[in-house]
Amino acid sequence: MRERPSGEELLIIARKVLREELLPLLPAERRYDALMVANAMAIAARQIAFGDAPERREWQDLSDLLGETVQDDGATAASDALGDLYRRLGAKIRSGEADPGTPSHDAVRAFLLDVTVQKLRESAPKILDGAGMEP
Amino acid sequence: MVVELDRTARERLQGFIARAAGAKSCAITALRRLRGGAIQENWYLDTEITGGAFAGSLEAVVRTDAASRIDESLKRAQEFILLKAALAAGVTVPEVLWLCRDPSVLGREFFVMRRVAGAAAGHRLVKDERLRQRSEALVEQLGKELARIHTITSSADGFDFLSLPEPSPALYWIDRFRQYLDHLAIPHPVLEWGLRWLERNAPTEAEIVLCHHDFRTGNYMVDESGLTGILDWEFAGWSDFHEDIGWFCARCWRFGVHDREAGGIGARETFYRAYEKASGRRIDPGAVSYWEVMAHVRWAVIALQQAQRHLSGDEPSLEPALTSHLVPGLELEILQLTGKEN
User: Fold this and answer.
1) B136 with B271, same domain?
2) Which residues from chain B sit within 8 angstroms of residue A119, using beta carbons?
3) Are residues B104 and B177 in the same domain?
4) In this structure, is residue B2 part of a structural domain?
5) Residue B192 has what DSSP assignment?
6) Contact (CB<8Å) B332/A123
């Protein structure tokens, strides 16, 4: 078993030190760099907090959308399986198979919106606030 | 990141300027790298020139390629020609002075231009209270400037480095972006979704002009007197004039001030009116909306290209590394902008 605090907890406290204690000591022209570091730490902490559950869910949803059976043995990384499925979805969209009026149009759009919202929860949750969406 | 030039490079730069200016000598009094410019490096340069037509103090910027650059961007020699043509067309741009194509001076091509006063940083400009009081005048001025840019025609030096977008500006970009996405390790189905929408809705006709292709808040300088210079010409090329208008007004370039649709600065109507009056053209609002969707796709592709500089190991650096995390926000916008058709 790993020791606590976890990687996520360490990132959160380290970021707090950076923002509250170190940032005020920096010359103005280096503030931006420190804010970028803080942002990178926040993204990493949020990704750790979500774990691989979002990608496993994407894997399931995308398999359903493409008419595939998921062979989730619990060990295969979802990100490996997703690459191939995503490429197929991209090809389907590009060839017009998800255009308005096609049977899969609404489901594809709903899926794309779901995965984009999840990416924003990790990369830039403030954008969801601004768009009036649940962060 | 190189933040200083070594002594011999400084001496070579002084020698180059003295020769180019027809001067007896040139002494650098200040030289430092300016922040920003992911693709180009800009160096702040003060010199004292002795003798010749430029005798006296010269406040300048040296512009050269960064260590790694984006394929689409123009070379410095080409940007130099465009800036001269822009100046001749009456566009407010920094005056370009000398081009150096000899790599033995700084290791890369560069040019020297006069430094213009003011600030460019987009996120600060949109929040500047003093600027807010005269933001409509600034937007009007920007509309006029863009109209002037769109009058630039091939100069005596020739724009043969710029090719016409075939079969049309929109379809040209769609093809380019798809080719780029096909090379990435991570697929981007939302960008595919946007590109398919752009393909289905592509305009059938376009009036082709010289587009700046990065005309937006953040790429022009402003001081107390107003606009002092339109910068960053490295993406300029022939296209539908609506493309520059869409890029300027796109939500992703309003720096969070979304109710000011003209670049986060002022009213879209003011910008359109000034552009139409100065150019004599009619803006088709539908065409601008189309190019705003394209703007989000294009910015997402550029962001991915910048992230690639870090991911490839060529230039491990935090700023490009974070750029790919801007993409989901652009993707949300693309889904919302293209979602109105059923």
Assistant:
1) yes
2) 327-328, 331
3) no
4) no
5) H
6) no
Enclosing domain of residue A107 = 53-130
Whole-number Cα distances in Å, B250 to B240, B245, B333:
16, 8, 10
Residue A68 and residue A85 in one domain:
yes
Tell whether A35 is within 8 A of chain B (Cβ): no
Asked if residue B39 has pLDDT above 70, the reply is: no
Distance of alpha carbon A91 from alpha carbon A97, whole angstroms: 9
| CB-based contact A127 B328, cutoff 8 Å | yes
Could you tell me if A66 lies within 8 Å of chain B, comparing CB atoms?
no
The reply to whether B1 touches chain A by the CB within 8 Å rule is no
CA distance B53 to B177: 47
Nearest CA in chain B to A97: B196
Read off the pLDDT of residues B214-258 as tens digits, 9 standing for 90 and up: 999 999 999 888 899 999 898 999 999 999 999 999 999 999 889
Phi, psi at B186, each rounded to 5°:
-105, 120
pLDDT at B10: 87
Shortest Cα distance, chain B CAs vs residue A115, angstroms: 9
The tally of domains found in chain B comes to 2
Block mean pLDDT (10 aa), chain A, length 135: 91 96 92 94 96 91 87 70 91 96 95 96 91 72
Q: What is the pLDDT of residue B342?
A: 45
Q: What is the pLDDT of residues B122-138, one digit of tens each?
A: 788 878 878 778 889 99
CA distances from B319 to A12, A27, B101, B311 (A): 21, 19, 29, 12
Q: What is the pLDDT of residues B262-289, one digit of tens each?
A: 999 999 999 999 999 999 999 999 999 9
Range of the domain at B29: 7-114
Assign B124 to helix, strand or coil: helix
CA dist., res. B121 & res. B132, Å (int): 15
Within-domain flag for B1:
no
ipTM for this model:
0.93
